[in-house]
Amino acid sequence: MKKRYESIIANIYPASLCLLLLAVWQAVSSSGLVPGYLLPSPTRVISALLISAPELAGHTWITLFEGLSGLLIGVAAAFLIAVLMDRFIFFYRSVYPLLIISQTVPIVAIAPLLVLWMGYGIAPKITLVALMCFFPVAVGLLDGFKSADEDALTLLRAMGASRLQIYTHIKLPSSLGGFFAGLKISASYAVVGAVISEWLGGNEGLGVYMTRVRKSYAYDKMFAVIVLVSILSLVLIRLVKTIQKYSMPWEDN
Amino acid sequence: MSILTAESITVNYFGKPVIEDVSLYLKKRELVCLVGASGVGKSTLFNVLSGTLAPDGGRVMLNGRDITARAGEVSYMQQKDLLLPFKTVIDNVALPLVIRGEPKKSAREKAQKYAARFGISGYESTYPNRLSGGMRQRAALLRTYLFEKEVILLDEPFSALDAITRAKMQSWYLDVSDELGLSALFITHDIDEAVFLSDRVYIMTGNPGRITSEIKIDVKKPRDTSFITDERFVEYKRKILDILKNDNYFNSRGV
Lengths: 253, 255
Ligand SMILES: Nc1ncnc2c1ncn2[C@@H]1O[C@H](COP(=O)(O)OP(=O)(O)OP(=O)(O)O)[C@@H](O)[C@H]1O
Ligand SMILES: [Mg+2]
Known about the structure:
The complex is a heterodimer.
Chain A (H helix, E strand, L loop, with lengths): L1 H30 L10 H10 L1 H35 L1 H14 L4 H12 L4 H24 L3 H9 L4 H37 L6 H10 L3 H29 L6
Helix pairs in contact in A: 2-10, 3-4, 3-6, 3-8, 3-9, 5-6, 6-8, 8-9, 8-10, 9-10
Chain B lengths: L1 E12 L2 E12 L3 E6 L5 H8 L7 E6 L2 E2 L8 E3 L11 H11 L4 H12 L17 H14 L4 E5 L7 H18 L2 E6 L2 H7 L2 E6 L4 E7 L14 H15 L2 H5 L3
Parallel strand pairs in B: 3-8, 3-9, 6-7, 7-8
Antiparallel strand pairs in B: 1-2, 1-4, 4-5, 9-10
Helix pairs in contact in B: 2-3, 2-4, 6-7
The structure holds adenosine-5'-triphosphate (ATP) and magnesium ion (MG).
């Protein structure tokens, strides 16, 4: 009961700020200070979202599919690489620095190359999302593995545990915190990553739709897509948080 | 007949000996305490006995079998209770059985049988962060016991507890130890505890650490708390304190 009350209090501040910003935006747009076609008012954006909902639905599914598949593939790859890095020190020493350097390559610059290599289909989109989602999860997992209590590992060895048992009983559960921290970041990249990759070509998806409405100067619809992408990402992050809660029942919050 | 013997164990860290030429033995159903200043190398010796650390010299024998550097031959409870925060109390306790390959269900049932005797019933399905200090130690002790090896090594199992809980735990331990027929080596800082619990006491002194004295506590078990005010108790205590006081290493530490 107390917790619920506290969480309501905690939410009041960001919610009020949000309402305030929306009000300012609405006022600026309707006062004519900024031309309505450049900055459509919140109410117009909402109505655009509702009006274009039927045509958005199909695009949304495609983008979601790309985002989620990319996320899953990225997470799977991150898992594999993190276990290898944790298990083999030479692998860690040779691969880890490269991973860090790879993060300095702008992902937007790789996207056209992926299209060049893989065509206009769904493959380059999923690949791009997977690339973006890979790193935070890999680092989170690796840190988690390394955070496993050294004495707890000794305890399991003293019990005669196998390598696999050490992973299942200590390293994996110890890494869940880091894993979910990384996964939340990756989840926030997934939908955005899919949209970016769609800008560069293709026939369907929210990114393609965005390019189309921009070219026809329907900025209210463009804003509507931006809002939709935010909502999708928020839902995805919320989902990750829920999964985390159920996979880590020992955490109090 | 001794079941566990250590023969001239030496351990170096970075080329410097930490413990040197340490020998000891443990007989069946015996409770032997190892006392010594902080840093003298008691835990290091236990790591060798448990097989988790390979010594630089000497060997460990269990019933005539060489078990040097072989983990999993004796039950070992480390200085920290090391209950895994992400496992429920019963799963923590049943862990050694699961590691050995027993199905989870039967491992839990087996652990459950001892829950009452080890004072953790009612808390089986909670997580360790809800337990009191004494309960944590008893849970860790049960886990150690369920490893089901002939010899038990306990590294300062009660040192983190307050005086009252500790006294209760000591009496409880003597009872359980007698019921289950345990053979244990027990590290402690607390000389009262050593005298109260032990059949024999080993004293480790110096740098590198060596076992320099062995004292037999010739008082029949079961003992109750009246022993603590007995004059023999005071006599044993004085004897051990005198030896520790003459330990230069002990003094240099300012303990
Ligand atoms: N892994 C290690 N590497 C290097 N030195 C170590 C290591 N472990 C312990 N030592 C050193 O070895 C010495 C003995 O340590 P040990 O933990 O065995 O002492 P102890 O007698 O158990 O002390 P305490 O009563 O405080 O637990 C200490 O000086 C310690 O600093
Ligand atoms: Mg120690």
